[in-house]
């Protein structure tokens, strides 16, 4: 991926492992995956050990106190540096006093809390969201040693992908481009599943990141459509968030769901029928108002569109990564590749 016209298309995430926490052996497996990733990324020995402690604590909590616990362990890469990121999600029972649990790791009957003090102390950044009865999301990030590139600390957009059961790679992919006054999002759902679908989505990411930052979304989408003609093709959407004008210019081809969330209000954005790389009778963009503090959500059809922001309490006040994780957990109910991308510009 290349930087263009005072813009950059970083960081790049790689979903290394999705681990279901189903028994007492899960914490050990999770620790080995996380420390192995940190070692490959060149983390210092003591930092690798700390990452192992945090992941073990998170997985142990999920095993002992939660229902349907899952861990995502992945790398987040900038130009030359990489961080390790961990997302822990469950479906309940939730944490009644989240601030206390994170601060000192207290736990009482029916709550998740043991070890969360260690998670807070050893991670470079931690964000948590919990809804009693609905479950908990905890994200932890570990930065490389030395000065941290700005791309690795940006918190205005984040996404998650998860492959269909039985596949190692996900056919969905996303990318984020940042330029002065603009935040640009792209989601691609490669047709089908497996390596060929993933190849189509990677090509969409490559083209998106190579286009000039000032190019309108409909022209970026047209370029992706042309590039995908030699492969599987897929559904693609591009959203340009103009922060100064408070506007989203959106162009979509196929069934990528696109939504603006402001408070408890959910406004859909319009995609035209077609398949990028195969069929596109028309490619056009639509303008939508972007209220202050709103979030923009793009997701593939691996998530149902029936979710509503009112089903959570204050979820959309959290970080884009927590929002994406909660949406995937609660709306990703189909046995399909699933991808969700959330953009939430900082005030």
UniProtKB/TrEMBL annotation:
UniProt name for this protein: ATP-binding protein/SpoIIE family protein phosphatase
Domain PPM-type phosphatase: 155-345
InterPro entries with a match to the protein in the record: HATPase_C_sf, HATPase_dom, PPM-type-like_dom_sf, PPM-type_phosphatase-like_dom, Ptase_RsbX
Pfam families: HATPase_c_2, SpoIIE
Keyword Flavoprotein part of the UniProt annotation: no
Record-level Gene Ontology MF annotations: ATP binding
Keywords from the named record: ATP-binding, Nucleotide-binding
Record keyword ATP-binding present: yes
């Amino acid at each position: 991926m290349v930087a263009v016209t005072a813009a950059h298309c970083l960081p790049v995430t790689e979903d290394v492992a999705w681990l279901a926490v189903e028994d007492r052996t899960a914490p050990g497996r999770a620790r080995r995956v996380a420390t192995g990733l940190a070692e490959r990324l060149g983390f210092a020995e003591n930092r690798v050990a700390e990452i192992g402690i945090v992941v073990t604590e998170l997985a142990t909590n999920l095993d002992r106190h939660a229902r349907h616990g899952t861990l995502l362990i992945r790398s987040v890469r900038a130009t030359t540096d990489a961080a390790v990121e961990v997302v822990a999600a469950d479906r309940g029972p939730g944490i009644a006093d989240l601030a206390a649990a994170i601060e000192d790791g207290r736990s009482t009957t029916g709550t998740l809390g043991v070890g969360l003090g260690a998670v807070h102390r050893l991670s470079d950044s931690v964000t948590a969201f919990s809804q009693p009865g609905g479950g908990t999301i905890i994200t932890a990030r570990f930065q490389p040693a030395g000065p941290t590139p700005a791309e690795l600390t940006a918190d205005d957009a984040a996404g998650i992908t998860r492959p269909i059961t039985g596949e190692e790679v996900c056919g969905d992919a996303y990318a984020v481009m940042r330029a002065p006054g603009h935040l640009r999002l792209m989601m691609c759902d490669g047709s089908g599943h497996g390596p060929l679908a993933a190849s189509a989505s990677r090509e969409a990411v490559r083209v998106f990141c190579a286009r000039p930052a000032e190019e309108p979304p409909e022209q970026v989408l047209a370029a992706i459509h042309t590039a995908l003609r030699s492969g599987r093709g897929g559904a693609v959407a591009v959203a340009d968030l103009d922060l100064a004008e408070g506007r989203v210019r959106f162009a979509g081809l196929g069934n990528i769901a696109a939504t603006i969330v402001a408070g408890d209000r959910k406004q859909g954005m319009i995609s035209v029928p077609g398949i990028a790389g195969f069929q596109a009778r028309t490619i056009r963009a639509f303008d939508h108002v972007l209220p202050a503090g709103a979030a923009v959500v793009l997701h593939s059809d691996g998530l149902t569109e029936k979710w509503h922001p009112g089903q959570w309490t204050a979820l959309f006040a959290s970080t884009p990564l927590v929002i994406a994780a909660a949406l995937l957990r609660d709306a990703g109910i189909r046995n399909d590749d699933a991808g969700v991308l959330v953009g939430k510009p900082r005030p």
